[in-house]
């Protein structure tokens, strides 16, 4: 397993960090074998796999179920998981969820929003704390670009510095102007991972379903590499034709 300190060294050496969401054992085996640095069980599990309308509908038990499946397929990658919205109502509930996810096999947990007290507590625990700022889906209803003006950009940089000081081992920035994300990356010693935040971060996180084209939708920030939806659709149709003959 990779350690969080590995990523700070990669940042220092100018080597980009790869991160992919993952929700099941076979996908975890593929990602791990390919050398993905961080395999991330995101709360996008709710909408991408479980059919919920919103990621906040995900329960901690559902997250734990999928984390355990993914963990069985991971041998070398660093395993990160979201603290679900349902388990984030207080410091105590976050720490309890983090400990349960640690028992399920994660190396780190991601927490949305500016919560320095959480990262201070995680820094004293057996699980790493990763911050998520910019657009935070658990806390902001509609996707929108954040830190667009000087004041909000300065606040974002300041908050990231404070979370680093509190003990965060990494920051994920979502839907932030590229130049602002670059400023954050340059200001921090810990890695800054972007999604829809330009290409000047220390790494990128992509949703597995977006990367392989398992959904028909295509987002601007998605690095789509194949069309799994079309391939699977054709396979099912071919099967129907085969048994019909």
From TrEMBL:
<keyword id="KW-0808">Transferase</keyword>
<dbReference type="InterPro" id="IPR040442">
    <property type="entry name" value="Pyrv_kinase-like_dom_sf"/>
</dbReference>
<dbReference type="Pfam" id="PF02548">
    <property type="entry name" value="Pantoate_transf"/>
</dbReference>
<dbReference type="InterPro" id="IPR015813">
    <property type="entry name" value="Pyrv/PenolPyrv_kinase-like_dom"/>
</dbReference>
<dbReference type="GO" id="GO:0003864">
    <property type="term" value="F:3-methyl-2-oxobutanoate hydroxymethyltransferase activity"/>
</dbReference>
<comment type="subunit">
    <text>Homodecamer; pentamer of dimers.</text>
</comment>
<protein>
    <recommendedName>
        <fullName>3-methyl-2-oxobutanoate hydroxymethyltransferase</fullName>
        <ecNumber>2.1.2.11</ecNumber>
    </recommendedName>
</protein>
<comment type="similarity">
    <text>Belongs to the PanB family.</text>
</comment>
<keyword id="KW-0566">Pantothenate biosynthesis</keyword>
<dbReference type="InterPro" id="IPR003700">
    <property type="entry name" value="Pantoate_hydroxy_MeTrfase"/>
</dbReference>
């Amino acid at each position: 397993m990779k350690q969080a300190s590995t990523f700070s060294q990669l940042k220092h050496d100018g080597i980009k960090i790869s991160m992919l969401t993952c929700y099941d054992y076979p996908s975890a085996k593929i990602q791990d074998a390919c050398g993905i640095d961080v395999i991330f069980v995101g709360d996008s599990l709710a909408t991408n796999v479980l059919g919920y309308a919103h990621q906040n509908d995900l329960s901690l038990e559902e997250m734990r179920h999928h984390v355990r499946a993914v963990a069985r397929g991971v041998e070398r990658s660093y395993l990160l998981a979201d603290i679900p919205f349902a388990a984030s109502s207080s410091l105590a509930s976050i720490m309890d969820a983090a400990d349960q996810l640690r028992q399920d096999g994660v190396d780190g947990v991601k927490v949305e929003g500016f919560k320095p007290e959480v990262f201070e507590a995680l820094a004293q625990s057996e699980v790493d704390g990763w911050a998520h700022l910019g657009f935070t889906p658990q806390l902001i209803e509609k996707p929108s670009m954040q830190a667009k003006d000087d004041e909000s950009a300065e606040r974002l940089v300041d908050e990231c510095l404070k979370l680093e000081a509190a003990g965060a081992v990494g920051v994920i920035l979502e839907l932030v102007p590229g130049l602002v994300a670059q400023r954050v990356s340059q200001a921090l010693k810990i890695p800054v991972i972007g999604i829809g935040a330009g290409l000047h971060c220390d790494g990128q996180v992509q949703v597995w379903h977006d990367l392989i084209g398992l959904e028909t939708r295509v987002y601007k920030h998605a690095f789509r590499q194949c069309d799994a939806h079309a391939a699977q659709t054709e396979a099912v149709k071919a099967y129907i034709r085969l048994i019909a003959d």
